[in-house]
User: What shape does this take?
Amino acid sequence: MQDYPQTSLQKSKTVRGGLFQRELQREFMATGAPVFAVLVSLVVLSQLIRLLTESVSGSLPVDGVLVMLGFSALNYLPVLLSVSMFLAVLLTLTRCYRDSEMVTWFSSGLGLTQWIRPVLGFALPVVALIGLMSLVFSPWALSQADEYKRRLDSRDDVAAAQPGMFRESKQADRVYFLEDVDVHKKRIGNIFVQSNQNGINSVMMAKEGYQETASNGDRFLVLLNGTRYEGVPGQSDFRMVEFARYAVRIEAVETKLPFVNPKALSTLALVEQPTSWHLSELEWRLGLPISALILAVMAIPLSFVNPRAGRSLNLIMAIMIYMLYNNMISVTNAWVGQGKLGPIAGLSLLHLAMLLLVAMLFYRRMAVFSWRRLAR
Assistant: This one.
């Protein structure tokens, strides 16, 4: 057969189609970026409040708040990207229905399925980023956060004490208060130490001090130019002694075996050690990009707006479907971890069911007769 050159009308349609897809994807980006910014702000704010609470209680140093906040935000990014992409497609196409742009689209002979291509053009790069974050960066962030917490727990009592706050020792027999810490000069100013050892209460106060390590490895808090009060005031055995130098032994902290959190393991480690809970975590990481892609396509039929039913009904339905989908992923992952469900079935059954739901939603919007008429 002889190939005929493309006509000018066909070229014009191709150019217009390309321009339309680029404009639509640009609108997806314009809608998704503010949504993503708002979601990230909410997550960062909630995590910041939690970390500041831990900092006030003394379990987290002030300089570690931003570090833990960064790791926590990086862990939540795959889920936030998935939600933002779903809402971006849903809100954009809902606006097209409200502004009667869909009427023009359908009147020109183009069907609902032809929205899939521009939606996939927008969604696939985001899905690839979600997969990269889920499989690589989120586990790395969690492992770094766990390692940072272990380093904090391994600190001694003096190193864990924060300036201007009372700090109880891990043995619960001493209370420290350091008013000022000069890291460069390695000096501590205005020190207060209360101890209860062998049934004897004592209080020591000094103008300054420093930490010292003995030849055998023992560490001491050396107090300079201070006063020691021992006993109960008003009784005959109460003593007050002024000293020029007094060394308080810092109890060593026992090193705890690190808890192996499957969420903090690398994806390669999960594959090399295929236990039930490791496979469950692996399915969660693989399920995030898969569910994000399915939800992006599902947003096309869900964006339909019925003026008689209200403009927010489709948004409520979409949010309910997303919550159900996300919760069912968590449930199936728990079943795989408990051995109630095989790993292949846990990964495939739910996503296949959601694909079937997508096909049914498309059919409902494209069918000439509604299901009610067919039931009659």
In short: The beta strands are 166-168, 174-182, 187-197, 200-213, 219-230, 239-250.
